[in-house]
Design brief:
The protein is mainly α. It is 92% helix and 0% strand. The chain has one domain.
Amino acid sequence: VDYTKMTPILLQAIKEQQVQIQEQHVEIQKQTTEIAKIRSEMKELRKQLEKGLPSRSIAKTQAVKK
């Protein structure tokens, strides 16, 4: 096997893989930010909902969360 001919092909494959990894990293960062935002919104909505419910209903809601 002539490895010298394979080297450029392998290097190009590694470069392409690095681009894919970087794109995935960016997408993960976006998703992480979006998840944090959604969690914060859910927390705020949960607080608002609990303020409007009778105490007995809150206990049921908390049991469902677990």
